[in-house]
Amino acid sequence: MSKHLLIAAATAEPWLISGWGAIGYLPSVARLLKGENFYDEDQVFTSFRKSKEEIFQVVTRHNEDQEWEEFNYYLHGITPSGKRVKIHSYSQLPSGSTAVIPVKGALMASDQYCGPMGMETMGRMVTSAENSTRINHIVLEVDSPGGQVKGTQQLANIINGCETDTTAICTMACSAAYWIASSCDSIIATAETAKFGSIGVMIELVNTQAFFEKEGIEFHTIMASQSTDKNREFLEAFNGEYELIRERTLDPICDIFIENVRQNKNPDDSTLTGFVYLAKEAISLGLVDSTMSEGDSVIQVISQNTNQDFTMSKTGNLNIWQRMFGKNADKAADLFNEGAQEQPADNQELIDARAENDRLTQELAARDSQINDLNATITEQNATIARLEALPAADHTSTVSEKKVEEMAGTERTPDQTAKELDDKFAASV
Question: Which CATH class is domain 3-33+65-309?
Fold first, then answer.
């Protein structure tokens, strides 16, 4: 994302971000406003121990490499044995693997130049993992105070639409990051100090007019005669009147945010006003499902959570049943949970079954390819036969038949001639 877009987003757009998250990024915003970079460019290249030219060559090669699946970032995965790997494509993982997607830092809709990836790329990674036959679980590693409104709901909707099991493992999931995490099947805190919540919307408007006027720059804002309300909420806000911008921008976005969180997790209403909670309280209020135990690996947490939380809570996820089955939601949830309790406790059996299914699917695809090749050969042979039958050889057959008829006509016998020939043959034999 270019500098001017970052400045515009930071100084004039509504954000789903916690207060300390916004304050923490103020020094970076100040540097942008001064025309400076977020970072010392020479120091960045020095840290890689490569020149700018070498770095750009590597980036160019990566962009040209088809195996990168259009991502300018490594993909992360965990194999069934628990080994974490960096890959270019989910197809490089064995069947039964877990895709790990980072959701970290201040979240922006688009990728930032030489910086964190945007929510658009995160969404494409989730979709790629969902479509991969090698992935049976998607994990979001969340450590974020929130971010832009733009892009948040789109990413949350992609996660909500996944049939693959999804888990958010969170160190911090505040505001936009919590909206995203709540779209997963389960939310797990990495520690008791993990932070959750900050469900709300804010905007920081930076009035730079006085600064520019001091530099001798005059402002003249002219509206069309029909545009009596254009930019009215911003103009009033710059004059200290905030009601209109709340009414027309912040409150409607917040209503959508709260409704989506209710549909995803249905936490206690007290959590929907913007407070931030540590893990233990967040669990008690329905924001979070559980906390990782000391020494647990991601794969262990996934396995434990899949087995013990496979049944769907009618308190935390009743909205899913209500949307699907209306007044029969309770009955549908009970029937689902009865079936879930019959699932085998050992997840390895499921992994093996999926691996065997993938093998048979590939074998079937190979057989189908062979059948298609044979059908193509038969079609070619039939075409050859039809072509040969249509050649002048058919006329030759007709000529031969006419000759045979003439010969038969020339050797035609009367009954008396035939009888005499038989008598002669009989006499000769005696």
Answer: alpha beta
Long-range CB contacts (within 8 A, 24+) of 355-359: 355/94, 355/95, 355/96, 358/95, 358/133, 358/134
What is the H or E stretch that residue 15 is in?
A: strand 14-17
- Residue 240, sorted as left (phi over 0), alpha (psi -120 to 50) or beta, turns out to be left
The count of other CB atoms within 10 Å of the CB of residue 322 is 16
The pair of three-digit structure tokens given for residue 83, joined into one six-digit string: 């080994």
Give residue 315's pLDDT band: very low, low, confident or very high (50, 70, 90).
very low
Residue 375 has, within 13 A of its CA and on its CB side, a CA count of: 6
* Percent of the chain residues past pLDDT 70, beyond the cut: 60
Beta bridge partners of 173: 144, 196
Of the spans 32-41, 156-165, 232-241, 308-317, which averages the highest pLDDT? Answer: 156-165
| Rounded Cα distance, 100 and 355, in Å | 20
Count Cβ neighbours within 10 Å for each residue of 117-155 and write b for 16 or more, e otherwise: bbbbbbbbbbebbbebebbbbbbbbbbbbbbbbbbbbeb
Q: Please name the residues in contact with 185: beta carbons below 8 A apart, sequence gap of 6 or more.
A: 165, 166, 167
Residue 75 to residue 86: CA distance in whole angstroms: 6
Dump pLDDT digits (tens) for 71-120: 557 899 999 888 889 988 898 899 999 999 999 988 998 887 656 789 99
pLDDT digits (tens, 9 = 90+) for 254-265: 999 999 999 999
The rounded distance, in Å, linking the Cα atoms of 102 and 116 is 10
Q: Which pLDDT does position 4 carry in this prediction?
A: 53
Q: What is the DSSP string of 199-237?
A: -S-EE-----HHHHHHTT--------TT-TTTTHHHHHH
Residues 6+ apart with CB under 8 A from 111: 1, 72, 117, 118, 120, 121
- The helix (H) or strand (E) run that includes residue 188 is strand 186-189
Q: Which long-range contacts (CB under 8 A, 24 or more apart) does 158-164 make?
A: 158/123, 158/126, 158/127, 159/126, 159/183, 159/184, 160/264, 162/126, 162/130, 162/138, 163/130, 164/129, 164/130, 164/135, 164/136, 164/137, 164/138
Which of these, 196, 92, 77, lies nearest to 139 by C-alpha position?
Answer: 77
Which of 129, 109, 127, 126 is CA-nearest to residue 118?
A: 109
Longest dimension (CA), the chain: 146
pLDDT of residue 372: 80
Scan for tokens 């794969």, then name that residue: 299
Spatial separation of the C-alpha atoms in residues 14 and 358, rounded to whole Å: 46
HSE (CB half, 13 Å, CA atoms) of 202? 21
